Amino acid sequence: MDYRKIFEVKPGKKVDLNKIDPDFTDDFAGKKDAAELVEKNSALLKQLQYELYAENRQSLLIILQAMDAGGKDGTINHVLAPMNPQGCRVQNFKVPSSEEASHDFLWRVHRAAPKNGEVVIFNRSHYEDVLVVRVHDLVPKTVWRQRYDYINDFERMLAGHNTRIVKFFLHISKEEQLKRFEERLDQKDKHWKISAADYKERQFWDDYQKAFEDALTNCTTEFAPWYVIPANQKWFRNLAVSQILIETLQDMKMKMPEPTVDIDEIRKLAAAEWKKIKK
Ligand code: AMP
Ligand code: MG
Questions:
Q1: Average pLDDT for residues 98-103, to the nearest whole number?
Q2: Pocket of ligand 1 (CB under 6 A)
Q3: pTM score
Q4: What is the C-alpha end-to-end distance of the chain, expressed in Å?
Q5: For the structural domain made of 3-278, what CATH number should be given?
């Protein structure tokens, strides 16, 4: 299976989110049916991240965007769980601070980009500057319209610095969002996640979908592709994201660094030390 092919937004084609089924689960009968593959993928992700870290020459930037309750947090938890925390980082992007707002919109983003060997997940990103900012007219159209080009140039530059970029839009339905808000109301330990704006923002649902469609259409590139992930079913969302990450990391063809010492010589030293102990 090649999930990159299935879910990629192809450059030059206009995205229509209405035509993408958020309930899609491929040929899997359900969560149980996919469990074995999920296990296998976790082990593979762990190994590939280890190789990326050891090689220390490339990096992986994962960008997550979604409507509220779209599953960004759950995806981060699932994808990072098998990885070694030493080589991973999550970066959240909130409403810009006054310092951030007094710089260009990519300033805070660039300094959060991964260094060699690292996996970084952006929980929201510079795309907010063509999403929430556009929907709520936080800057004039003449300003946000230019940002698609700036974003593409910026991402091309990162890619040129051996940063592999994969961007996921977690696609849920409007009804599924309402269901997830309900679950938050029902579970006391999720109350902290509820914000007064959640229900109010639903009146802008169509505007957001349109803004997402333009961001996906204008900013999917060979070096930084967008993937639309059917995300109504959390287990399938996790599976699809992990599958695409594995395919991407395998494509990066990491090479373990050559040893910096003569291993045979070191073996001899070790043997001599053992001899001393056993005497
Ligand atoms: P959360 O991720 O739920 O903690 O919420 C973060 C909030 O920050 C969301 O409402 C985002 O829309 C908002 N946000 C993130 N980046 C920006 C930005 N560049 N401009 C305005 N609002 C933003
Ligand atoms: Mg929120």
A1: 98
A2: 93-96, 124, 128-129, 132-133
A3: 0.96
A4: 58
A5: 3.40.50.300
